[in-house]
Specification:
It is a single chain. By secondary structure, this protein is an alpha+beta fold. It is about 25% helix and about 25% strand. The strands form two sheets. Strands 1-4-2-3 form a four-stranded antiparallel β-sheet. Helix 3 crosses helix 4 and helix 4 (about 135-155) packs across helix 5. The longest helix is centred in the middle third of the chain and has 23 residues, at about 135-155. The mean pLDDT is about 90.
Length: about 230
């Protein structure tokens, strides 16, 4: 049992870390072992975007209290951990990160029932797994499927033929990667991901065993109020 959260502030200027911390505090009952946040900025030029991480063992208030200044950015994901698989060490604290085919960070609640099979498949294709966590397995499966989706798009599309991988990701490739990840991963899972030059992504297992909720906040100006 863990808690996951993702936020995107559409103005590009507001920092989301404060609300991520508030949200994780609300989700603290779902995991008291460790907590982590990663943020980025959608306003920066994509070549200059850095993922900023704060992750540690402990409660939300202890992990982030003195370190919020390190988390400037309008988009991010967070995680509180109650370990059901893997070890209870700092190495296992989410969100996890890979840098290919682009910057990808992922946090996950749930369990993969075919984790060892997937681990063997990943290792056989020379992907390096640094933890015993099935969340890292899920991240690498998604990264593989996103790579394949991008390659297939460029081969099969006249417009994208020969385009470098540095071109912005298209939503069809992202959703195709999600679909293929679901076909490979068995179990119950809810996932949030931060994708470089895209934003945030959330998906759950096809059966909804681990539910996830999508919400949108609408702001109104005072001028919008109608007294008539």
């Amino acid at each position: 049992m863990c808690g996951v959260l993702a936020l995107l502030f559409g103005d590009g200027d507001s920092d989301c870390c404060g609300e991520l911390v508030d949200g994780l505090t609300t989700l603290q009952h779902r995991g008291q072992d460790a907590a982590g946040i990663v943020v980025a900025s959608t306003k920066s030029e994509w070549e200059e975007v850095n993922f900023r991480f704060v992750r540690s063992v402990g409660l939300v208030r202890d992990v982030f209290g003195p370190r919020l200044d390190a988390l400037a950015g309008n988009v991010g994901i967070g995680h509180v951990r109650y370990p059901t698989t893997g070890e209870g060490t700092l190495t296992e604290v989410q969100p996890f990160y890979v840098n290919y085919p682009c910057g990808l960070s992922l946090a996950h609640n749930g369990n993969l029932t075919n984790a060892e099979q997937l681990r063997a498949e990943l290792v056989s294709s020379h992907r390096h797994l640094n933890t015993t966590s099935d969340s890292e397995i899920l991240l690498n499966v998604f990264a593989e499927e996103l790579t394949d989706a991008l390659r297939a798009r460029r081969v099969g599309s006249t417009e994208a033929a020969g385009a470098p991988f540095s071109d912005p990701l298209d939503e069809d490739s992202v959703f195709q990667a999600v679909s293929n990840t679901m076909k490979r991963c068995r179990g119950g899972y809810a996932v949030v991901a931060l994708i470089h030059n895209v934003g945030v992504l959330a998906f759950r297992d096809p059966w909804g065993i681990r539910p996830i909720v999508f919400g949108k906040r609408t702001y109104y100006d005072d001028d919008d109020d109608d007294d008539d």
